[in-house]
Design a protein that fits this description.
single chain, alpha/beta, Rossmann fold, 2 domains, 7 strands, globular
């Protein structure tokens, strides 16, 4: 029996608005795409979520990806408050699940920097029963250790959990760990899939 709903945050409860964030500084077209490739779309971006590297080391890595855009990269990285936007349906969704007696948690690759600077886009966190952001444990999905840490910390049985994430690899890791999984393509699709799983309709 499912008792616990575990949510990823990015592209599940909030939108990852990196293009809009770059555009905020006036960068468009090819320049914006190059900035995105050097930063948010590069393999280095996972390190901001792991929480091991300093911001200075991360910034140096992004600049090394496209040295011609050093000034632009520094500007875009100076304030990350607009890099996520809370989805309108997130808070009502969580409240409805809790009203039905489910416990609701988060398990997300997420950085301390974004949590602090974009806290206004994370209003649903205070409605949840708890969770883990990757930077606090210095592990990122799909490392099985982060799923184990969530269960250990909150006394959860994996077989009583369903995990919602927008990345197939993370869902597969959760399923190997013993959870059920729902791959999120849109919030409406995920709500319908969860509804079928929990209520059979």
């Amino acid at each position: 029996m499912i008792r616990n709903i575990v949510f990823d945050i990015g592209n599940v409860l909030v939108d990852f608005c990196w293009r809009e964030h770059i555009a905020r500084y006036g960068y468009q077209g090819e320049t914006a795409e190059r900035i995105g490739k050097a930063m948010m779309l590069s393999s280095l971006w996972t390190e901001i979520d792991r929480g091991v590297w300093s911001m200075e080391k991360l910034l140096s890595g992004f600049i090394a990806n496209d040295p011609e855009l050093e000034e632009e990269i520094r500007t875009v990285f100076s304030d990350l408050s607009t890099i996520i936007k809370e989805r309108k349906g997130s808070l009502p969704w969580i409240r409805s699940l809790r009203a039905d007696g489910y416990r609701v948690y988060y398990l997300s690759n997420f950085s301390d920097r974004v949590k602090k600077e974009a806290t206004g886009e994370l209003t649903f966190l205070e409605e949840m029963d708890g969770g883990i952001m990757s930077y606090t444990v210095r592990k990122i999905k799909p490392d099985p250790a982060i799923y184990q840490t969530l269960c250990d910390r909150f006394g959860l049985a994996a077989e009583e959990c369903v995990f919602l994430d927008d990345t197939l690899e993370n869902i597969q890791a959760a399923e190997r760990f013993g959870m059920q999984g729902i791959l999120v393509e849109s919030q409406d699709q995920a709500k319908q899939a969860l509804q079928r799983l929990l209520y059979g309709k």
